[in-house]
Design goal:
- The protein is an alpha+beta fold.
- The protein has helices at residues 31-41, 48-55, 60-81, 136-141, and strands spanning 7-10, 16-19, 85-92, 99-101, 110-119, 123-124, 130-135, 146-150, 158-163, 167-169, 182-189.
- Strands 3, 5, 6, 7 and 11 form a five-stranded antiparallel beta sheet that branches. A four-stranded antiparallel beta sheet has the order 4-10-9-8, with no helix packed on it.
- A hairpin with a 5-residue loop joins strand 1 and strand 2.
- The chain is rod-shaped, with a radius of gyration of 42 Å.
């Protein structure tokens, strides 16, 4: 233990003043080690081991790899969640006796109905394709109500359908002229 000395002297005015003699830190036994230990104990100094541990936590390449993996997982999820599901494919006037169904969970956005030109007695003509989209919210607001799909480029030619959250159904008027100039060739939900 270092002994602390107090000294006194008279100043020019004759007043006695106390002072402590100045010494160098090297003169005090274990002073520098004690200061370092106190600083480390108070977390004011980062040790080499702590720096190494900190620097090993993440690298730019590691962070990029994690970001790429998260992006791939998000893309896979959304691609699967919003995947289109084919409900029916073929060629039909889409009469009232034709009903196609799906699971309610499969229709997240709505229903696609594809039509093409059709000639009675011949069948689908393979041209004049057109696709209609019926939004899910519209279907939920108007369940099983008649929806007219007006055919492109034709006066008063339309297909009548009825949709619910799990079904689409045709209408007997779809077999009458001029509606029979088109057929429904695909139904899909997304």
């Amino acid at each position: 233990m270092t002994k602390i000395m107090q000294m006194t002297q008279k100043n020019s005015e004759g007043v006695t003043e106390s002072f402590f003699p100045v010494t160098h830190s090297e003169a005090v036994t274990n002073f520098q080690e004690a200061v370092k230990a106190a600083l480390i104990a108070n977390s004011e100094v980062v040790t080499a081991a702590e720096k190494t541990a900190w620097n090993a936590k993440e690298t730019p390449a590691g962070a990029q790899a994690k970001a790429d993996a998260a992006k791939a997982a998000a893309n896979a999820y959304t691609d699967a969640y919003f995947a289109s599901k084919n409900v029916w494919n073929g060629a039909t006037y889409f009469l009232g006796t034709h009903t196609f169904s799906w699971n309610a969970a499969d229709m997240k956005l709505g229903v696609f109905v594809e039509v093409q030109r059709y000639m009675p007695g011949t069948g689908p003509l393979g041209y004049g394709y057109f696709e209609f989209f019926i939004p899910r919210n519209f279907i939920l607001r108007n369940p099983a109500k008649a929806i007219w799909l007006c055919m492109p480029g034709a006066d008063n030619t339309r297909k009548t359908i009825r949709c619910t959250s799990t079904t689409i159904q045709g209408d007997d008027t779809n077999g009458d002229s001029p509606a029979n100039a088109y057929c429904v060739s695909n139904v899909a939900v997304i």
